[in-house]
Design goal:
- The structure holds two protein chains of two kinds.
- Chain A is an alpha+beta fold.
- In chain A, strand 5 and strand 6 form a beta hairpin.
- Chain B is globular.
- In chain B, 28% of the residues lie in helices and 35% in strands.
- The chains are: A alpha+beta, B alpha+beta.
């Protein structure tokens, strides 16, 4: 299959709770996504980097998917409200979750360490190369 | 200065990283999980001076070797990124 070479590397740093959803949506849309769990400098909160290599024309789609899954939003958190013998309803709290930072870095070139014309051919586990192919848009 | 970002399967990443270190290239390895099939990958980051670029790629190719492949698609992508500024503190 002839795919145009990727020219942009999109690096999104997202909340860890949103990472699964984002990766799934990216893969479903035909993007290869690589996830690296990482930690933020502020409050040491764990986050995740999601990296996508793609062509310039598809960068807006990646942004759109990040916005859909990772936008800053409020949710209502109901704190557990038991104390001793009495159960008192505690007021629900509005918390802000989500948010993402996205970098777009130009890819100067792409090299492959394997040689596609390599005469060494043998059977592999099913789907093994699908994973690598999924990295390319 | 160039930054090489390579996403490899776990075993290849080990061989390639070791070969780079043996040739005095600095490598940072990030264990990652691919979005498709979710099997273990690793991302290698290598900073190289422009004049060392072809040498580094050669070391990586040799260490990667002829990975057995049942398809014709190339594997072992390495993204070459330009570094605008580099500082060591």
């Amino acid at each position: 299959m002839d795919r145009p070479a990727p020219t942009k590397l999109v690096v999104a740093i997202v909340q860890i709770e949103d990472a699964d959803d984002l990766v799934r949506k990216l893969v479903d849309s035909g993007f290869g996504a690589t996830r690296i769990d990482s930690g933020g400098g502020f409050l040491k909160k764990q986050n995740a980097m999601v990296i996508v290599a793609t062509v310039e024309q598809r960068v807006t789609s990646v942004f759109s998917l990040v916005r859909q899954t990772c936008r800053r939003r409020h949710m209502t958190w109901f704190p557990p409200a038991t104390s001793g013998m009495m159960t008192l309803p505690a007021a629900p709290i509005e918390v802000e979750v989500g948010g993402a930072v996205i970098f777009v870095v130009p890819i100067e070139r792409v090299e492959f360490l394997s040689n596609a014309a390599d005469p060494v051919v043998s059977h592999t586990r099913a789907g093994e190369n699908d994973e690598i192919a999924a990295i390319h848009p | 200065m160039k930054l090489l970002l390579s996403i490899l399967d776990d075993r290849s990443a080990g061989r390639v990283a070791d070969a780079l270190v043996a040739d005095k290239f600095g490598v940072t390895r990030l264990n990652t999980v691919g979005g498709f099939l979710r099997r273990g990958n690793a991302t290698l980051l290598v900073g190289v001076e422009e004049h060392q670029l072809d040498g580094a790629l050669g070391v990586m190719r040799s260490a990667y070797g002829g990975r057995p492949s049942s398809s014709d698609s190339p594997s072992g992508p390495v993204f070459v990124l330009d570094v605008e500024r580099f500082e060591r503190v």
